[in-house]
Amino acid sequence: MGLLQGKFAIITGAASKNGLGKATAKLFAEQGATVAILDLDEQAAKTAAADIGAQHVGLACDVTDKDSCYTAVRTLIEIWGQIDILVNNAGITQPLKIMDIEPKNYDAVLDVNLRGTLYMTQAVTPQMREQKIGSIVNISSVSAQRGGGIFGGPHYSAAKAGVLGLTKASARELAPDNVRVNAVCPGFIATDITGGLLTPEMLESIVAGIPMARAGEAKDVAGCCLFLASDLAAYVTGSEVDVNGGSLI
Ligand code: NAD
Which PANTHER family does this entry report, sorted A to Z (predicted)? Predict the structure, then answer.
């Protein structure tokens, strides 16, 4: 029996073909969960869901829009009757220096990474509280812990640090209802978000600074999300787990 047999899981930003969300959706499905992939483009979300199996659901959702989050979650509760797991994975980054960050850059990055995490948490909380069980996994970043240094500007580091604060505060508030909230901090993981930003020379110099001497893979992050989402982590809440090949040692 899979670790997530009988569980219903929402993963935001999981339509990206080589992304962390899609790898997590695939692993959750392999472990018995029914998964909903939420992303900006409805067709991309549906295609990604169909890729992992016919029973999975793809829905359009813009996590920066509270109504959009609530509508998606309401739709899923109508279909499934329960929500056991939420992975707040949707994220964007911009490789800007501090003096180049315009208000529109700040808003875009904070809105998707931080506001979106809050809105989706708010959307699932009443259902998880009522069930008296739930696991929320928020994707932060090593950039929050070491002040960037790999990719993404200071506004990205600030947004992902905000995600850590939100994780701990919501973990504290929701713990009495057995709703757990944890954060995963990926280091450098080879996906479309990173591939588009780096030259081969930059890639080489990043890998040279990683004790395990390789970039992470999306499945490395997915495995950590699986642990936190599953009952193996039944007494784990408010934690931040590093998946970074030793980058902070
Ligand atoms: P990705 O670009 O492959 O996927 C991000 C997904 O988020 C895309 O499918 C995109 O359409 C979706 N998205 C963007 N804005 C959205 C919105 N408003 N509403 C809903 N969906 C939206 O990126 P990835 O590398 O798979 O990153 C996934 C998460 O991991 C992000 O939060 C990212 O910040 C974080 N992260 C990635 C790395 C890395 O090295 N790749 C490292 C640390 C943290």
Answer: BLL7886 PROTEIN, SHORT-CHAIN DEHYDROGENASES/REDUCTASES FAMILY MEMBER
CA of 191 to the centre of ligand 1 (A): 9
**Would you give per-residue pLDDT tens digits along the chain (249 residues)?**
899 999 999 999 999 999 999 999 999 999 999 999 999 999 999 999 999 999 999 999 999 999 999 999 999 999 999 999 999 999 999 999 999 999 999 999 999 999 999 999 999 999 999 999 999 999 999 999 999 866 789 999 999 999 999 999 999 999 999 999 999 999 999 887 677 777 888 888 889 999 999 999 999 999 999 999 999 999 999 999 999 999 999
Find the domain containing 235 and state its range: 8-242
Number of domains in the chain: 1
206 within 8 A of 150, measured Cβ to Cβ: yes
Read off the CATH number of the domain in which 156 is found.
3.40.50.720
CA distance 231 to 3: 8
Substitution candidate for ligand 1 out of 51, 92, 156, 217 with most atoms within 8 A of CB? 92
11, 12, 16, 87: which to mutate for ligand 1, most atoms within 8 A of CB? 16
Ligand 1 in reach of 91 Cβ (< 6 A): yes
Cα(82) to centroid of ligand 1, in Å? Answer: 25
pTM: 0.98
8-12: strand order across its sheet: 57-60, 34-39, 8-12, 85-88, 134-139, 179-186, 240-243
